[in-house]
């Protein structure tokens, strides 16, 4: 049993409470399951211990994909202009995959592409405009992608934003839920037929990854606030982020179940990348830098942060593995809410209704997302 010094637990509580994972005293003492999840995570981070996969928190994206040939694969990654997404794109192209980056900041996307090409002149990178907080933009992105006549083997739903003040998306949905969950839900549905066709004609397993977070443990009491998703009076920037990350896991689980039922050769999994000081922390940047100084052992660098995504996307040992949640390149159990099949089904129905009602209202002729 690992020993946690009072100082390390204090720092954990402090840093997690500011990353939105907890009002720590409340749940660290009250929720044994969550406590164990966090303890295992800390143990793995401090020791860098490798799990059953042979990889651990200190593994990098290059290390976990070493020797893998991805030249036959086409991948879409959302938010590949910086942070974990850009490193994921870089490593996938290094392994030979053709990577399509969906980005809303085309200047940053051009810079990311230039950097990837600077390191690997043969890298195949395509940039397409995508704003996940706008249904209109998601539809345009899918049309642009289809116009390229490419197959699609991998879809990495990575883009995200965290702890922003209350805002509504173009379509009138709370911004963190809209960007982190609903946008990816719609995007995935609109790309699914292409992925199914690719998997069928190529015989190669398709893979969908939702980049979630350990922050899924800190959400509203009922998990997802179906009745008050836009309610400003009970908005918490941290719980709303946790809610959207819980939705990422539930979405992956329900889609995985549906594809298994259909007998489709596509897996769907979710990932917690670790704690990595990226632009994601823009709304708490100064505080996080301060905390990182005292809790450096809880943090990963970007190559380590992209490792779990790259492992789940490419590693042959995960063939056929679906509906699972990964952290530090190993399968772990998310919280009870994240494993609740009824909640996952309810979220699916809610998301279909939301995408349909908004798209019918605002964009006549928009493809039915169901
Ligand atoms: N860093 C961590 O410690 C951590 C921990 C757990 C989970 N995660 C998850 O990992 C994923 C990647 O995070 P990161 O740390 O790499 O953050 P990041 O550096 O801020 O990257 C996020 C990416 O998402 C893009 N994005 C945000 N809103 C978008 C929108 N509406 N449409 C299209 N793209 C949008 C950003 O583009 P812009 O530059 O245009 O904003 C950026 O490219 C996120 O899903 C996050 O929740 C991160």
UniProtKB/TrEMBL annotation:
PANTHER family the UniProt entry points to: SHORT-CHAIN DEHYDROGENASE TIC 32, CHLOROPLASTIC-LIKE
Name of protein: Short-chain dehydrogenase TIC 32, chloroplastic
Family from the record: Belongs to the short-chain dehydrogenases/reductases (SDR) family.
Transmembrane segments: none
One GO CC term, this protein: chloroplast
Native source species: Brassica oleracea var. oleracea
Keyword Signal: yes
InterPro entries from the UniProt entry: NAD(P)-bd_dom_sf, SDR_fam, TIC32
Xref: Gene3D superfamilies: NAD(P)-binding Rossmann-like Domain
Location, primary (coarse class): plastid
Localization: Plastid, Chloroplast
Keywords carried by this UniProt record: Chloroplast, Plastid, Signal
